[in-house]
Amino acid sequence: MNDYFEIGPIRPPSEAQSLLLRVTRNCPWNKCEFCHTYKGELFSFRTVEEIKKDIDGVKGIVDEIRHRSWSMGFAGETSQDFLRTFFRQTGGYGHAFQSVAGWLYFGGTQAFLQDANSLLVKTTELVEILHYLHEKLPSISRITSYARARTLAKKSVSELKELRAAGLSRIHIGMETGYDPLLQYMKKGVTAKEQIQGGRNVVESGISLSEYVMPGLGGKRWSREHATETARVLNEINPDFIRLRSLYVRPNMPLFSKVESGEFVRLSDDEVASEIKLFITSLNGIQSTLVSDHILNLLEEVEGKLPEDREKMIGVIDRYLALPAEERLLYRVGRRLGYYRSLVELQDLPLRARIGKMIEEVRHSLNREGDPLSEEIEREIYRLMENYI
Ligand code: SF4
Question: What is the model's pLDDT at position 371?
């Protein structure tokens, strides 16, 4: 049995239950200032034969797991009980095996094509891959992929319709911003005009479209323009989903040196919240669903369907911004430690006490007792976010 198949490094948060199938390797652009994922790695296509071999590998593992489930008295099911018993008896197997087992546990219905821009693959080849995937793994009902807007702007709507007919259900675009000077500064390699064209092509083809926006990307200099111009571009596209993924700058990103030199000044959490408020206020005439499903986002509750949930989303931001400084600090630290998912959790008294004690300990270690907003404390909170990258 071929029990190996290649898996790339990332997927969108919403694809946690998807089978990961590597169609190309790395990113063909690889120049964005705020991105570290593929730095130092070369882009390459994989052949259709290689990808089919991987699909055969997944199929082999699926058959083996099902067979074991029957022989162990679990009637072919991949429940938690079965998987626990199976891995205890077999000693675990490798990464590919565990990944397929987890995928089956979640239903085995979704697949995500990796890496950064699968739509660069020739349409005829991608159609062949999609057909093969459906043929070998018929439980799959949803197939999604990342793609660059520039590539999609060059794809014809009829090609995208072919892909949709072959089973491509959703495309995720890392739009990040719709403000041209910021796109240039961040070396995103795309213009707002291309983003509109690429997004519209997808919408017209009937493939579901998810656009990722990066709050905070404009820094202090371009926060306002970033919010309003990104909204303007999205208003022209009307994607199914707008997903927020806040900026976090880590040392292995090119942007880091600009932060260190003072050329790029990051926004505070509160400023990012205000920026998102302006962004949501500027989204008009669209029926997109706004999602805040990335762990780096401070306010996970800012989610809803436009236009009907606009006030509800803005209300969450207003409630946060109206909190006293010490409460905001408590929430931010609790969120960055992974405790809080909503503002109402601030009322959990034992948790408050625990987080409050940690803050006091940090202040004490920094000789900053009673100082909620010192730079050192801000740095400590920012450092906590690195755990999630
Ligand atoms: S296009 Fe996407 S994957 Fe490629 S460098 Fe930019 S952000 Fe990273």
Answer: 65
Distance 29 CA to ligand 1 centre (A): 6
Tens of pLDDT, residue by residue over 227-281, are 999 999 999 999 999 999 999 999 999 999 999 999 999 999 999 999 999 999 9
DSSP 360-387: HHHHHHTT-TT-TT-HHHHHHHHHHGGG
Tell me, in angstroms, the distance from the centre of ligand 1 to residue 173's CA.
10
Q: Whose CA is nearest to atom 5 of ligand 1?
A: 30
248 exposed, middle or buried (CB, 10 Å; 0-12, 13-18, 19+)? Answer: middle
CB 175 within 8 A of CB 149: yes
Pocket of ligand 1 contains residue 17 by CB under 6 Å: no
Q: Looking at the chain, how many residues does it have?
A: 389
Q: Tell me the best of 24, 25, 29 to mutate to test the pocket of ligand 1, counting ligand atoms within 8 Å of each CB and taking the most.
A: 29
Ligand 1 atom closest to the CA of 115, numbered from 1: 3
